[in-house]
Amino acid sequence: MKTDSKWELQGKYVIITGATSGIGLAAAKELAARGAKLGIVARNEAKAKEIVALIKGAGDESVDVDLFIADMSSQSSIRQVAAEILAKCPKVDILVNNAGALFESHQITEDGVEMTWALNHLGPFLLTNLLLHRLKESAPARIITTASHGHKMAKKGIDFEDLRAEKLYRPLKKLMGGPTLRYGQTKLANILFTAELGKQLEGTGVTSYCFDPGLVDTNFNQNNGRLARITMSVMSLFSRTPEKGAETLVWLAESNEVSQHNGQYYADKSVKTPSDAARNTKAATRLWKISEEQTMF
């Protein structure tokens, strides 16, 4: 399906994860200010309710903001929230996969998946696929996933033989930055996922994008101990604001310019070339198959 009509954000329904802080919050406020209707997916209900009030207060009380509660590292929770979204929302025009984190300790989820991988990659993969039919029904529609320049740390690509990242969290590997490399692998997965999704969506009217927000001063990596907090404090001196980091996300949601693009990677509101590993089409196909197996989709 193709459309020649001009894309406009006004009145579009946007589902966004990770919108209670950082670039997600900055983007949510900006999208609402530009006339979008929001569905915020959040884990902490009390905090999310504060954010909804904040977004409404930043504009006018007539701003439409729905709240959906889910843990994006839990597949059962994602399935439940997807069912709630489908029941409530006859249209989903834009899905923003923004939730993500770096975990310094090795954690395995209830689904038997390493936590960074579960939250940063499988969460977006599963939620996107569960909502994909509704997005196609709403076409033209868009899927935007927050990637990172950090994907370039994973120069050797994704280690498909160590999906639980047990090697990376061994004491010596951990000391040498194993958890950070793991984060890089998940951000690489975001780009490969976007590219493969773009191929599968050709002709449907749904388009897929991912982007690098840059080094942003947020609360990212603040839950991983004193050293991580000190490191992030130093990096904040060279960081951009969440509002600046959200600019490309908002642009991808709003711009008519990208309507004919699909599966590409962006930074600072323009197409960029990611790493060689991020352009490996065989790895993208393999990742998709493994992700289907891990989510039983």
Automatic annotation (TrEMBL):
The keyword Heme does not apply. It comes from the Bacteria. Pfam families: adh_short. This is SDR family oxidoreductase. InterPro entries: NAD(P)-bd_dom_sf, SDR_fam. Keywords: Oxidoreductase. The keyword Oxidoreductase applies.
